[in-house]
Amino acid sequence: MKPTENGITMTPAILVTGGAGYVGSHTVTTLLERQSGQEFEIVVVDNLSNAYRSEGQKKPESLRIIEEITNKTIHFYELDIRDADALSKVFETHNVECVIHFAALKAVGESVEKPLEYYQANIGGTCTLMETMRKYGVFKLIYSSSCTVYGEPERLPLDEGHPTGRGLTSPYGKSKYFCEEIMKDLSISDKKWKIISLRYFNPVGAHRSGRIGEDPAGIPNNLMPFIAQVAVGRLSELKVFGNDYPTPDGTGVRDYIHVEDLAEGHVKAMKLFQQPGFSGFHAINLGTGTGYSVLEMVAAFKAASGKDIPYRIIGRRAGDIATNYSDVALSHKLLGWRAVKTLEDMCADTWRWQSKNPNGFKTS
After folding, report:
1. Segment 232-246, tens digit of pLDDT
2. Most buried by CB count within 10 Å: which residue of 63, 139, 222, 349?
3. Are strands 253-254 and 292-293 parallel, antiparallel or unpaired?
4. Residues with catalytic roles
């Protein structure tokens, strides 16, 4: 542990980049809920590109609400992880022992339109973060990766042995793949690194309290918040991108996972760092192993909310593929983790969040 100026050892800290965003905020909540006391500090850095902060407040709404839910304190710094000097000050202030790295741009379609911005943020930011970690002797990293690294599936379900980097359909997916390759090279060059890359499938749902959930800036890029905003009346209809895919109803099929299950996966992953001899780069899928089509999701959400979900079929969206769903045997084996929330849970919790907060974290 690093001593403070008066010689007292500092509490170990977990640094969460992008911790005010959707998956980050739910993981922060789970980390704090699992603590019996103040075993470690939670330090969040976020540039607020996809998080809302009320006027006059120092912390974004998601983190303020988490503090109320858990009755614990979160240390927050507004910064972009590409700012090495600002990031270094965080490492100098806190006894960081582990980093959970969410900070990234994440919309597949948008990345096709803005590739340079995605490469700058996702790859440049990750490199600056790891350089800073190395500078301060921090070598434990959990990375928020994506099933998009698998590209067009050569076989289903997608297991971790499936080739990555082939047939990638978007700069977003490429950025995640490139970051994983950098991490592999880094862990080969220096055996001190312990890197776990969690390849998410499609996070949905909200915290069971209904107080935090997905609140995208602008028009949603992901299916579930789009459906929820139609159900609550913020949007008039859902746009379904293509109904001519080789799937049972022609719409895209995805493996949707409840965000609380996903958050629990990060807590389980941290325990791997404690295993004797654990080192190097390890990729692990986090999904349910079951795929649902867009129209199946619409029907499930309609049942959960009691609201009609008008939709209109339009052309395919650049970067999308027909079907993907996970093989999660490795996460069961290595983490002792499995998704427990059902599709009904995902829809009910999303609706609880959206109906209680029709404008998201904004009060008006």
Report:
1. 999 999 999 999 999
2. 63
3. antiparallel
4. 172
CA 97 to CA 266: how far, in whole Å? 15
Instruction: Residue 317: name the closest of 106, 107, 109 by CA.
Output: 109
pLDDT tens track for 155-177: 999 999 999 999 998 999 999 99
Amino acid at site 191:
K
Residue-level pLDDT at 8: 46
> Which domains are seen in the chain, by residue range?
12-356 (3.40.50.720)
pTM surpassing 0.90? yes
Taking CA atoms, 343 is separated from 257, 279, 290, 306, 334, in Å, by 8, 35, 10, 15, 25
CB 141 within 8 A of CB 194: yes
* CA pair distance 30, 121, nearest whole angstrom: 26
Q: Confirm if 322 and 153 have CB atoms less than 8 A apart.
A: no
**Phi and psi at residue 98, in whole multiples of 5°?**
-150, 145
Give the separation between CA 26 and CA 17, rounded to whole angstroms.
Answer: 13
The pLDDT value given to residue 221? 84
Q: Whose CA is closest to 202, among 22, 20, 358, 16?
A: 22
Burial 107-145 (b: 16+ CB within 10 A, else e): bbbbbbebeeebbebbbebbbbbbebbeebebbbbbbbb
What is the per-residue pLDDT for 1?
Answer: 42
197-209 per-position pLDDT tens digit = 999 999 999 999 9
Residue 95, φ and ψ in degrees, nearest 5:
-85, 70
**pLDDT of residue 363 exceeding 80:** no
Phi-psi region of 151 (alpha: psi -120 to 50; beta: other; left: phi over 0): left
User: What is the torsional sign of CA 340, 210, 236, 173?
Assistant: negative
CB 341 within 8 A of CB 260: yes
Predicted confidence at residue 185, as pLDDT, reads 98
Mean pLDDT (whole number) for 134-143: 98
Joined tokens for residue 85: 């000097």
